[in-house]
Amino acid sequence: MPDDAAPETLQFGWEEWISLPDLGVPALRAKVDTGARTSALHAFDIETFGSQARPKVRFTVHPIPGRDDLVIPCSANIVDRREVASSNGEKEMRYVIESALLVNGQKWPIEITLTNRSTMTSRMLLGRQAMKDHISIAATDRFLQPELSYDVYHTSRMREVAPQRALRICVLSREDNYSTRRLVEEGEKRGHSVEVINTTRCYMAINALAPEVHYDGKRLPRFDAVIPRIGASITPYGAAIIRQFETIGTYCVNGAAGITASRDKLYAHQIMARARIGMPNTAFASSPRDTANIISLVGTTPLIVKLLESTQGKGVVLAETKKAAESVIDAFRGLKANFLVQSFVKEAAGEDIRCLVIGGKVVASMKRTGAEGDFRSNLHRGGTAKSVRITKEERETAVRAARAFDLNMAGVDLLRSESGPKVLEVNSSPGFEGIETSTNKNIVGKLYEQIEARVRPVPIRRRKTSTSGSADKQT
User: Fold this and answer.
1) CA–CA separation, 333 vs 19, rounded Å?
2) Domain match, 339 and 401 both
3) I need a labelling partner for 60 at 20 to 30 A (CA). Which of 166, 205, 318, 397 fits?
């Protein structure tokens, strides 16, 4: 039917099957009530979010009466908030949204108020505003339009019809830098609500029945996903906060275990060794009696001496001779510092490759070259970067390294050696500025695609409450 053609008038009985495609509700039995001005939808867990200029509301729907184990998560823009009087005269302030109503192939926008209709036999009520010029009423009949079926909620088709609802995202970060700003910018561009939460200002209520995360004196709302940007100096506390979100059931892009393991350089190398991932020969000892022993374990000089707590190239020393290596090792030991000794990959010539892995795929890679006279290629130390094409072996190595730490997002740094790629480090909070600038790719957009795929709203089947009184969810 052409857009400018008059819609066909539909005849409704007092009860009809309808669809709300914008909300991902393909089948719903609705009561038609010309005495009500606005339509009403059964909704619970109603929660506002978003900016004051464009407020939104999240809620969940039980589409089938008597089936509270079937839940559809929804979100929409708020168009109004008004007082509504129910049939028994009680008044209630309700949020008003706009959504498309679909019946027999015809679709038009209607206003819907959100309220708890759990005591009503119909999950939705259609009021006068929804009728407009599209409907005539036969008050003594029902189901004059094609009947739908609740069976649709038990098929794979639900993933196809589920809308990309707005998500509420938490970015755990203490810094106002490029990466944090890009996460907010890209998330809001995609219609999500993104909140930056200072990790160190979070605190936890730890209990078996209702674990919570609090912030600045208030309980944090229910987030769809958490993007950790945990600084190295607060790794233990940051990991504890992430574990709390994991306990609640929030999807965390990177889990606490992976972040903690990647930050512990000794443990990280042990994990990579167990996964048979290529890396420079590495040795560690608390206090060897003979410095020469630790040197011989990695080969000959030159070699690298690296503090376990080093970041951004700090605490990394190149010892070009055996005497220099002995001096550096003795100095570190005198400071009671923990350190690794690694073989030096000379053929890398001061260059390494950063592979950005998201969702088990390398989405971008760049070659970093150290500043003049510096063997370290860190961009924070004056290095430069450019896009680079990596080999199949390098790609597979980067993916395997991220998987070894169970990280959904990781910056994998590797060297090109004569015997194949050697992984230097797996970074659980990689920066986006250098790789987005050098590759001209929207890396943050790729991250949001992965988040949306993981938390896409589809009907949730809740298991029945067990004898212990607990219940959980499964998709």
Assistant:
1) 71
2) no
3) 205
Q: How far apart are CA 299 and CA 26, in angstroms?
A: 66
Q: Is residue 432 part of a domain?
A: yes
Residues 356 and 382 in one domain: yes
Answer yes or no: do 340 and 355 share one domain: no
With respect to residue 275, please indicate whether it lies within any of the assigned structural domains: no
Contact 96, 112 (CB under 8 A): yes
Q: Within its chain, how far is the Cα of 203 from the centroid?
A: 21
**What is this structure's pTM?**
0.70
In 3D space, the residue among 353, 363, 358 whose CA is nearest the CA of residue 383 turns out to be 353
**Alpha carbons 205 and 91: distance in angstroms, whole number:** 36
Domain CATH for 39? 2.40.70.10
Burial 255-290 (b: 16+ CB within 10 A, else e): bbebbbbbbbbeebbebbeeeebbbbebbbbeebee
Q: How far apart are CA 446 and CA 461, in angstroms?
A: 29
Rounded Cα gap, residues 183 and 389, in angstroms:
26
Do 219 and 204 form a contact (C-beta atoms < 8 A)? Answer: no
- In this prediction, residue 56 carries a pLDDT of 87
3-state secondary structure labels for all residues of 186-220: HHHHCCCEEEEECHHHEEEECCCCCCEEEECCEEC
Distance (Å, whole) CA 63 – CA 92: 22
Identify the helix (H) or strand (E) that includes residue 135: strand 135-137
Give the pLDDT confidence score for residue 288 in this predicted structure. Answer: 52
Full DSSP string of 52-97: SSS-EEEEEE--STT-TTEEEEEEEEEEEEEEEE-TTS-EEEEEEE
pLDDT, tens digit, for every residue of 305-329?
877 765 555 678 888 888 888 788 7
CATH assignment at residue 246: 3.40.50.20
Residue 104 within any structural domain of the chain: yes
pLDDT band (50, 70, 90) for residue 158 = low
325 and 308 belong to one structural domain: yes
Beta-carbon contacts of 15 under 8 Å, excluding residues fewer than 6 positions away, are 29, 30, 31, 32, 122, 142, 143
Quick one: tokens of 280? 């420079």
* C-alpha to C-alpha distance for 150 and 390, rounded to whole angstroms: 50
27 and 143 in a common domain: yes
468 occurs within a structural domain:
no
Q: How many domains does the chain have?
A: 4
